[in-house]
Amino acid sequence: MIAVSGIAAGAIGGIVLARLIGSYIPDVRLPEALPIAGAAIILMASAILASLMPAARAARVDVVQALRSE
Predict the structure, then answer these.
(1) Does residue 42 have a pLDDT over 90?
(2) Rounded CA separation 33/41 (Å)
């Protein structure tokens, strides 16, 4: 949920800022949907990978042994 909200806020903020700068500088073009979607997919994949690695490590721990050590 954190990654989704961050990606959405970044995409919306980027589009708003590009439109704002485009009103002052006529040569600035707004990004099309494909680069924005591609960046969102790459960011979401990296967020999923970053959260799966610690989860897989935690899943290998024996629960009974972890509770006994506490």
Answers:
(1) yes
(2) 12
* pTM as predicted: 0.65
Distance between CA atoms of residues 28 and 21, nearest Å: 7
Which burial class, exposed, middle or buried, applies to 40 when counting CB atoms under 10 A from its CB (0-12, 13-18, 19+)?
Answer: middle
The DSSP secondary-structure symbol of 61 reads S
Residue 6 predicted with pLDDT over 80: yes
What is the distance between the alpha carbons of residues 11 and 7, in angstroms, rounded to a whole number? 6
Residue 26 DSSP label: T
Rounding to the nearest 10 degrees, give the CA dihedral for residues 38, 41, 45, 46. 60
